[in-house]
Amino acid sequence: MRRGALILAIVISACGAGPAAAERLVASLSNENVAITSNFVGENLVLFGAIQPDAGKTALRPAYDLVVTVTGPRQTLRTRRKQRVLGIWVNVDSREFVRVPSYLVILSNRPVAQIAQPDTLRRLQIGLANFLLPQHIGPDIADTVGDDPFRLAFVRLQIQQRRYAEIGSAVTFLTPAVFRAGIPLPADVPTGNYTVDVKLFADGAMVARTNLALTVTKAGFEQYVADAARDNGLLFGFVTMLMALLTGWIASVVFKRD
Amino acid sequence: MQIYLPIADMSVNIFLVLGMGLAVGYISGMFGIGGGFLMTPLLIFIGITPAVAVASVASHIAASSFSGAINYWNRRALDLALALMLLAAGILGTATGVWLFTTLRALDQLDLMIGLSYVTLLTIVGAIMIYESLRAIGRARKGMPATLRRPGSHTWLHGLPFKLRFKRSKIYVSAIPVWAIGFIIGFVGAIMGIGGGFLLVPMLIYFLRVPTATVIGTSMVLTLITMASATVMHAATNHLVDAVLALILMVGGVVGAQFGARTGQKMRGERLRLLLGLLVFAVGLRFAYELVVQPDDLYSIRYVRIE
Lengths: 258, 307
Fold this sequence. Notes:
The complex is a heterodimer of chains A (258) and B (307).
Chain A: H1 2-8, E1 11-13, E2 23-29, E3 33-36, E4 43-53, E5 65-71, E6 74-85, E7 88-101, E8 104-108, H2 112-115, H3 118-123, E9 135-137, E10 140-142, H4 149-160, E11 164-167, E12 171-175, E13 178-185, E14 192-202, E15 205-218, H5 220-231, H6 233-256
Parallel strand pairs in A: 3-15, 8-11
Antiparallel strand pairs in A: 1-15, 2-4, 4-13, 5-8, 5-14, 6-7, 9-10, 12-13, 14-15
Helix pairs in contact in A: 5-6
Chain B: E1 2-5, E2 10-13, H1 14-31, H2 36-45, H3 50-74, H4 80-106, H5 110-141, E3 163-166, E4 171-174, H6 175-192, H7 197-206, H8 212-237, H9 243-266, H10 269-292, E5 299-306
Antiparallel strand pairs in B: 1-2, 3-4
Helix pairs in contact in B: 1-2, 1-3, 1-9, 2-3, 3-8, 3-9, 4-6, 4-8, 5-10, 7-8
């Protein structure tokens, strides 16, 4: 993807342009365009990066923390709660989570709670507990308190499906200024555009930030089948039906011989 | 060996899916049923979304029943006239079923309704089949011919007008119960996402007295036509038919169905009905268990849309 590559041409944004912004963050993905082919069983992407002193400043701080937030294409999902009614379990209540990431993985070199103060984490949406997951609440769309039972259940179920994760040991500092992080993409990873948001912390404050783009697309035969099913539904249905009849006919011919 | 399914958007073990197709195909060939009520829950169990499972199973059933129908056609064990008569009313039943399906989904209680219909239908039909076939086996043990008593032979069903003669099945019945059965099968099939063969076979035997010799082949023709059109409709409207998944299921299914049909023809009719009754009843209990026992997780996520 040309656009992906363009964005990958390392967007550097020195956030929080205060006196603390004295570092630059340079990062790159091992593969910025993941192609899903027929033998795709998931992939582990590697994010490499380095911390560089900003122009005019020579020394780096002794210790940094790094948080990588990977978000997938947005989806709207409904979380339902069952309750026993007349002896059987029935969905009685549900909440709609509006435009939430289909994939959300937060990677850091140590648990995010140790990296910064709770209010900083909340402001920067760091960690699954702090990431904005808006719900339909009456006529409004808003995120709820962190211990809302529907929000907790939603995050828990997404973790079980390997769609959401918070891994406090996934970022490794190879030297004090060079880091590496592993991004696990499961076999049923949603297709679409992803954002990789890299934030650098020092002494509990964010000192640098950069964004990378990542695309997950179907390739080859998989792409062809998916396109055909979407664009020419009726024809696709007839071809599938003929395939079924042919398979059935071949079987009856083959088995007639013996 | 893993293979990625382009519409289901996930990768599955090809041999697992092939094996599932083989096993369900064997059962479907043996009893002359589509096997949708077994295959759809199996696919959902391995993680395929219910919508894709229902849509893809339709083409798998079409392949299995076509292969089976050819087999029965060659053995002259198929009543085409009866199948077409059932189909005429079946189309109307399907349309009514699709309408109710849409209405229930709008009320957000579709899952419950599907669960309840599975439980009610499968346990009742299963229990009746077990009871009837056990009695038939008992009679056969006592040395009485199985066809000696035909209870219901002279019920009000036979007093109805518009009588039709189906030569291949050697029956002379009113068109009204034939259409009623066709309508019910089409209706239930649309609601539950199944071909309805497991319902059709006992209904044809008990209400229309269709002989066991032609009942399975006839049911297969009906299943073939409904499932082939369901494949096209699902693909055209929802774009949810996974052709790769369907092909793997089909290949396993048709091979299984061939062996199943042979086993089925060798078995005595009442034994076959007892086995099918036990199977249907067991699946019904499985659904009942799910409704009654507290689920592991009270919460579940339903996909609404991509933004």
